Amino acid sequence: MLELTMAAVSAAEAGATAGMTMASVGTEPGAVLRVGRDGGVCRLVTPDDWLFVSRVHLEFLCGPEGGWQVSWLRGSQADPSAAVRLTLGAYEQPLGYGEAVALPRGAAGEIVIQDRTEPRSVNVGFFHEV
Questions:
Q1: Distances from the Cα of 50 to the Cαs of 10, 25, 53, 80, 92, in angstroms?
Q2: CA angle 43, 47, 53 (to 5 degrees)
Q3: Strands 32-36, 44-45: parallel, antiparallel or unpaired by DSSP?
Q4: What is the CA radius of gyration of the chain?
Q5: CA 40 to chain centre
Q6: N or C, where is the chain less crowded by C-beta within 10 Å?
Q7: Higher pLDDT, 107 or 33
């Protein structure tokens, strides 16, 4: 099972955990969880007016062997309004626009979507239960 928690944080709410949302899905090939502004497609939905987040920004996809990957899907703009970084324990790396990264089995970590123009972010925690 893959479990996600999401918090949308602005400068005024830094450190707050109110408004945290959760989603989970079983580890079955083809299972998917999406994060973005479009509530019709995404299980975790950010505020509508947070335009630095695409309609469908992140996609967690379970592959044929039961491993998970996360993708920063390309949006309608050539240059994104956000930066995305992945943290696994002490390891941190940027996630490139349109890039996918495999998550280690049993991994727990965080993906942060950071607005490039204002002090606000979407923090998505993940835990892969094996």
A1: 10, 26, 6, 13, 24
A2: 80
A3: parallel
A4: 14
A5: 17
A6: C
A7: 33
| Distance between CA atoms of residues 60 and 78, nearest Å | 22
Amino acid at 75: G
Classified as helix, coil or strand, 13 is: helix
The answer, yes or no, to whether residue 14 has pLDDT greater than 70, is no
End-to-end Cα separation, the chain, in angstroms: 7
16 vs 7: CA distance, rounded Å: 9
Query: CA 4: distance to chain centroid?
Result: 8
pLDDT category, 76, cuts 50, 70, 90?
A: confident
Report the SS3 class of residue 77: coil
What are 122's two structure tokens?
A: 């979407």
Amino acid at 29: P
* Entry pTM: 0.92
- Residue 5 structure tokens: 């928690």
Nearest to 121 by CA among 78, 77, 61, 58: 58
Q: What residue has token string 């949308």?
A: 8
